Amino acid sequence: EIVMTQSPATLSVSPGERVTLSCRASQSISSNLAWYQQKPGQAPSLLIYDASTRATGIPARFSGSGSGTEFTLTINRLQAEDFALYYCQQYNNWPPWTFGQGTKVEFK
Amino acid sequence: QVQLQESGPGLVKPSGTLSLTCAVSGDSVTNNNWWSWVRQPPGKGLEWIGEIYHSGGTNYNPSLKSRVTISLDKSKNRFSLEVSSVTAADTSVYYCARRSYNNGWLDYWGQGTLVTVSS
Fold first, then answer.
1. Phi, psi of B74 (to 5 degrees)
2. How far apart are CA B12 and CA B31, in angstroms?
3. A89 at the B interface (CB within 8 A)?
4. Which chain A residues are within 8 Å of B47, Cβ to Cβ?
5. Most buried of the four, A37, A71, B30, B70, by CB within 10 Å?
6. What is the mean pLDDT of residues A70-82?
7. pLDDT tens digit string along B17-35?
């Protein structure tokens, strides 16, 4: 099973800042990585797939990069609605599909 | 617009069987997709449980495989999850979700339903 490790666990930031979230895979997963956003009391929603492709309707301030074992989600000019939990998920080796433990972006 | 809606008992006794259903609208369970279940213990991360294809083919998380069954009801356009021999560790919010056949990501999710295992 591929283990996904996200860092940091929590990011305290202010609106307007640029935020960088990291996700590391225990072995190479090529570009087979997705990012999800989860707001309190809601289901996760797809942000990015194939490491860098934004899902339909996702603003351009969200961008993903990386391949192999190291991945990054960047949020430019953080807005109030972006304070949430973010999860990465690998889909290179299955079963099972595996998720990171999440990074919480909170208000500073 | 694709929508998924989970339903089922919110409380299950230890050693019992957890049963949930996911109703699909805006898409057909006979289309070229995998229909998945994911769970999230309170305050914790996401765990993929398993998935089913319209042919009835299934994939399960090896850690849960001995206790999990996912089935399809084409006539009602829904799919279901059963987890047997539950313990408190199975207390979670359970989500159903869709994965397009050739893709690995989950593009549509239900709102989730909390299932508590307690006597």
1. -65, -35
2. 32
3. yes
4. 99
5. A71
6. 97
7. 999 999 999 999 999 999 9
